[in-house]
Design a protein that fits this description.
Order of helices and strands: HHHHHHHHHHHHHHH
Structural class: mainly alpha
Helix content: 55-70%
Number of helices: 15
Number of domains: 3
Distance between the termini: 31 Å
Largest sheet: none
Number of strands: 0
Radius of gyration: 22 Å
Length: about 325
């Protein structure tokens, strides 16, 4: 481990300590705190994973560790400056801000109907996604459904004062695996917890043990399933076939544990420094920054086709939103 990398990780530890010292309660209710935590995972914890499991990340073969170290001298001070600035300006949320008065979460129906609607909606979506490949719309549904579910479940969880939280989370995690994406499970848990904490629901952390354990195990099962049957085949399967594929993935995890193909999947997925290191290497080689062009292209591509029928006739470099 080089001095630059060690120094960068040290700055991130200082940023974490600042946040933990300044915000002592209900940290999930603060967007800035969650943002910093995610930054530390993708730019700090990932470096420890690269050291612990060398050779597991294909993208690290494209860039030298020296360029990564140079990038750490950019991102780590940025995280610390953001954390310090946030700590100077953040104020503790008042009891009134943390507590939502009883009433329907959406202000439309009684909480009993809210539970019925959200369960029916989740099962309906799971059934549709299990029979039809909706492409973009399927991804949009799986990303927005957790937020809708959190709002619909909110009043029930409030009335129960946090009881049955484990069942609600387990229900959402179970439906999240039908999409075949690990991100859907993580997103579901994070969104639900943030909404509940922000709304004054008392969270008993022991109630998160089983949903968290189930989430981790099912994400490993999805990784094992992809190693067994392939990633894109799963998207075209019916729900019955998907359950069979997931059982095959669970069997793979139980037989092989964290096999190289599963471990490799996680080591590179949480790497937020490889691409940035490539950018640093490009700058050092004399490549000029892209400037505002990619941002302008994103705005142009966001215009609906019925307003700009010829937008898909643009150059390929413009249609690729990752360039």
């Amino acid at each position: 481990m080089s001095f630059k990398l060690l120094f960068g990780l040290g700055l991130q530890v200082v940023a974490l300590l600042l946040i933990l010292t300044r915000v002592r309660q209900r940290r999930l209710a603060y967007t800035g705190v969650v943002f910093i935590w995610m930054s530390l995972i993708y730019h700090g914890l990932t470096e420890l994973a690269q050291i612990a499991y060398p050779g597991m990340n294909y993208y690290r073969t494209m860039v030298s560790q020296a360029k990564i170290d140079n990038w750490m001298m950019v991102i780590s001070p940025a995280i610390l400056i953001f954390a310090a600035t946030y700590c100077l300006h953040v104020r503790p949320l008042s009891r009134q801000e943390l507590e939502v008065s009883p009433g329907s979460a959406l202000g439309l129906v009684d909480w009993r109907w809210s539970i019925f609607i959200v369960v029916l909606l989740n099962l309906l979506v799971a059934g549709v996604l299990g029979r039809f490949n909706l492409g973009y719309w399927g991804g949009l549904i799986t990303e927005t459904l957790p937020a809708i579910s959190a709002l619909m479940f909110l009043e029930f969880i409030q009335k129960m004062r946090g009881r049955y939280l484990s069942l609600v989370l387990l229900f959402q995690v179970g439906l999240g695996i039908l999409s075949g994406t690990r991100s859907a499970i993580v997103f579901t848990l994070v969104v639900l917890l943030c909404v509940f904490v922000r709304s004054g629901v008392p969270i008993r952390w022991r109630s998160l043990f089983w949903p968290g354990l189930a989430g981790v195990f099912l994400m490993l099962a999805i990784s094992g399933m992809r190693a067994e049957v392939g990633r894109f085949i799963y998207a075209e399967q019916t729900n019955r076939q998907r359950i069979g594929s997931l059982l095959a993935g669970i069997g793979s995890v139980l037989r092989n544990g964290l096999a190289p193909e599963i471990l490799q999947d996680y080591v590179y997925r949480f790497d937020g420094n490889a691409f940035s290191g490539l950018v640093v290497a490009g700058y050092d080689a004399g490549i000029k920054p892209a400037g505002w062009t990619p941002i302008l292209n994103n705005f142009l591509l966001a215009v609906p086709s019925f307003l700009n029928p010829t937008k898909l006739e643009a150059g390929r470099w413009m249609l690729n939103d990752e360039d």
